[in-house]
Amino acid sequence: WGGYPYDDLMMGLDYLIGKHAFIDAGRMVALGASYGGYMVNWINAQSRRFRALVSHDGMFSVPHFWYSTEELWFPEHDFGGVPYDPMARPRYEQFNPERFAANFSTPTLFIHGANDFRLTFDQSLAPFTLLRRKGIPARLVYFPDENHWTSRTSNSIKWYTEVFRWISTFTNTTLPYSLD
Fold it and tell me: How far is residue 158's CA from residue 118's CA, in Å, rounded to a whole number?
């Protein structure tokens, strides 16, 4: 989960930075949703490369995911059982961002839909609370009428506005238009 995929992302990023002079490695932001949101939380636990992060419906606690999801097949398959099984528990913990909470230090925007039963709201609330308690900038955007996706037009506009504002704030980028 966090091993080879994370390594591939970082190696791919290193390659692109080395190949393209227009990439400013000092102003990078990473964004992800669902598994990508998990990866953003894993990045926050493992890396200081990014100025800011955006996690949409991401996973923070891998063991808790099993207890709170409507989709049990994936964790049982990917982690070799249930989290209360002593044989499977180490696999749940191996790439668990929560296990590395002390390392979280990158400003992060969390976005979550109330009706997401795959990754429940607490998976965004927990790392948001963690960063705020540590004095690190964090923002939580909560959509009470969305699920795992942001599908309503007005919410989609709000989603993009929040994301662009977050990115521009932490990269010192002036957007070519007003978000207000």
Answer: 22
Backbone angles phi, psi at 34, to 5 degrees: 60, -115
Write the single-letter amino acid at 85.
D
Would you please indicate which residues are annotated as catalytic (active-site) residues? 34, 116, 148
Calpha distance 164→179 (Å, rounded): 8
What are the start-end ranges of the H helices in the chain? 4-19, 35-46, 62-68, 73-78, 89-94, 122-133, 153-171
Is the per-residue pLDDT at 61 higher than 90? yes
Q: What is the pLDDT of residues 119-148, one digit of tens each?
A: 999 999 999 999 999 999 999 999 999 999
**Three-state SS at 180:** coil
Sequence-separated (6 or more) residues with CB below 8 Å from residue 60 = 41, 97, 98, 123, 124, 126, 127
pLDDT higher than threshold 80 for residue 68: yes
Contacts of 119 (CB under 8 A, 6+ apart): 34, 37, 57, 58, 59, 65, 69, 112, 148
Q: Quick check: 10 and 156 in contact, CB under 8 A?
A: no
Average pLDDT estimate for 87-103: 97
pTM for this entry: 0.95
